[in-house]
Design brief:
alpha+beta; Ribosomal Protein L15, Chain: K, domain 2; Four Helix Bundle (Hemerythrin (Met), subunit A); 3 domains; 5-stranded mixed β-sheet; 19 strands; 17% strand
Length: 591
């Protein structure tokens, strides 16, 4: 880990203290190279024996330790004669080239790693005066003398690394070219964290000037001119991996090698490489083999289970992040109203503002009075004195928003009147004749009209996605700050959902209806409940994933990423807020 500390102290903290790791092209290539080296492990003769025999040494994959320096290392190769040895370390990249002289040299990270190996060899009785870095990309060997200057530099880095391990997480590097090649850049978010820190510092200064006329302080993020701060988009706008939805009843999922196979009775209907899948969503009575689940858990691919109607049951996934520090802070802060109330104000304010934006964008004729009232509710939420008061404000805003939801539906009458053969599905289940997309109010458990059926399914899918993100970041999704703990309810996922309900779930429903992806033929009625047909569910999954894959400009950072990526970014920013790296959580607000 000394290599990582010299490269970036923050990277060292993530990997050594929090146990976080993510692969990149470089790390995968390095792992493959070391797998080849480690196929053969050679014994290294004791130094005392070599003094007498003066044998030549060529030992691969040797593990040694130093009690004095509290170091352990696995050396790729040790060459030498007698007790004079030379450690050889393999690196995938290229050596550093002096721009003036054109000479090749090893990078500081590689020099320190080699020096640590030299110190371990010396403590074990060997003489070690130099080491070699073999750069695979250029097939060049670069010699590194283990002089006093390098040894002192290495010991100083070792001391600083131990101090960093017991302190707070180091700040991100500033405008560093290292970030672009770092495998943890999507977890670290260096530029995003830096912007939030600067805005938080401004907010702290601004608080001193907000007591004007005896009015209470409003916890509002300051408007920030980001033109002076360059935020690099260091993460891909879209994820190459895609979610898999399994909806047809009776399917069986197994595996062959690294390929998932879907069978309908004895017929194989689909094959999917596990390397192409980000998550699996199973609706209803679909079986998945133990072997497939074990492989998916090993690959950290979550499997989510739903009822046929879309009720979210739970998730099967691997052990995931073993870091307990974030969860410890989460549980500490959940009992502090001084933390919860400002955070919840921002979440609810963001939700109401996004609801107002949805009406402005999509309503045929947005009622001015409704828009004005929503603006008032937004302002009220930013100065609410308690969580119960905030719940009341949110409820009033939601009721007003859904009273005008019908104005965003562009389907005035069904264009797919049912024929007689579609009127009866079975003895107990009948279709309305026909269904209409006529929304009057929000109802659920069960939903009693098509629009509410779609909204319930959309919210269930969104809570599933945020539960998965919470697990990936290191949170406990069942302990929130706004939604109170209740058995089986992913309260934190529901907290994070609030600003995204209108932007993702409601928008997916409107798009599915207004573009005729969903029609009245896609619904059935069972007693008082209205549900989607299997074909209707498939159509809505497509609409939902289209929305999640839509590129959107982040209002704070200025780059374009998908909504699915935004969910992860916002959840990681909440982690920064909980651990104290940033002063405020910036809710996602669209224009």
């Amino acid at each position: 880990m000394l290599n990582e500390f010299v490269y970036c102290p923050r990277l060292f903290y993530y990997e050594w203290v929090e146990g976080v790791f993510a692969d990149s092209v470089d790390t995968v290539a390095g792992s493959l190279r070391h797998q080849k080296l480690e196929r053969k492990e050679d014994a290294l003769p004791a130094a005392e024996e070599l003094v007498e025999t003066q044998d030549k040494i060529h030992s691969r994959s040797v593990q040694l330790a130093s009690d004095t320096h509290r170091l352990i290392a696995k050396l790729d190769l040790i060459e030498g004669e007698g007790d004079l040895v030379v450690p050889v370390d393999y690196k995938i990249g290229k050596p550093r080239k002096d721009s003036d002289k054109g000479e090749l040299s090893a990078w500081d990270t590689d020099r320190v790693q080699l020096a640590a190996q030299g110190l371990i060899l010396r403590e074990n009785g060997y003489r070690c005066e130099e080491g070699v870095i073999y750069y695979v990309a250029t097939k060049q060997r670069v010699r590194v003398p283990l002089d006093d200057e390098l040894v002192n530099f290495t010991l100083d880095a070792l001391r600083q690394a131990r101090e960093a391990a017991f302190g707070p997480i180091p700040p991100p590097l500033v405008d560093s070219p290292k970030c672009a090649r770092c495998s943890l850049v999507g977890i670290c978010l260096p530029d995003e964290t830096r912007v939030c820190i600067e805005i938080g510092d401004q907010q702290a200064q601004r608080q001193l000037t907000l007591f004007d006329g005896g009015e209470p302080t409003r916890n509002v993020l300051p408007k920030r001119d980001l033109s002076t701060i360059e935020v690099r988009r260091l993460v891909p706008a879209r994820d190459d991996l895609k979610p898999l939805y399994l909806n047809s009843q009776g399917f069986r999922v197994g595996k062959s090698g690294e390929v998932l196979q879907v069978h309908d009775r004895d017929k194989k209907v689909q094959e999917i490489r596990m390397n192409d899948v980000s998550q699996i969503n199973i609706f209803g009575n679909i079986q998945i083999s133990t072997q497939a689940i074990q492989s998916l858990c090993s690959a950290e691919i979550p499997v989510s289970y739903f009822s046929m109607g879309g009720w979210f049951y739970g998730v099967t996934q691997g052990i995931g992040i073993k870091n307990i520090f974030l969860r410890r802070e989460q549980f500490r802060h959940a009992d502090r109203e001084s933390f919860c109330l400002p955070l919840c104000r921002q979440l609810v304010s963001g939700k109401i503002r996004n609801q107002r934006t949805m009406l402005l964008r999509n309503h045929v004729e947005p009622p001015r009075q409704t828009l004005a009232l929503l603006k008032e509710f937004q302002d009220d939420s930013e100065r609410a004195d308690s969580l119960p008061q905030l719940l009341g404000i949110e409820g009033n805003a939601a009721r007003l928003y859904f009273e005008n939801f019908n104005g965003m539906l562009k389907v005035e009458a069904p264009d797919d009147e049912l024929t007689p053969e579609h009127s009866v599905v079975n003895d107990t289940t009948q279709r309305a004749s026909p269904f209409r997309f006529d929304f009057t109010n929000r109802n659920r458990r069960p939903p009693r009209d098509p629009v509410n059926a779609l909204l319930s399914l959309a919210y269930s899918m969104l809570s599933k996605d945020l539960s998965i993100v919470c697990h990936a970041v290191g949170f406990d999704p069942y302990l929130g700050f706004y939604h109170q703990p209740r058995f089986g309810r992913p309260a934190l996922a529901l907290d994070l959902m609030e600003p995204f309900r209108p932007l993702i779930a409601d928008s997916a429903v409107l798009s599915a209806i207004n573009t005729r992806m969903i029609t009245s033929r896609d619904f059935i009625r069972t007693g008082p409940a209205v549900a989607l047909t299997p074909d209707g569910r498939k159509a809505f999954y497509r609409a939902y994933e289209q929305r999640m894959d839509t590129l959107v400009t982040h209002p704070l950072f200025g780059y374009r990423v998908t909504y699915r990526r935004v969910l992860e970014i916002q959840t990681r920013l909440l982690a920064r807020r909980i651990t104290g790296e940033i002063r405020d959580y910036p809710p996602f607000i669209t224009r």
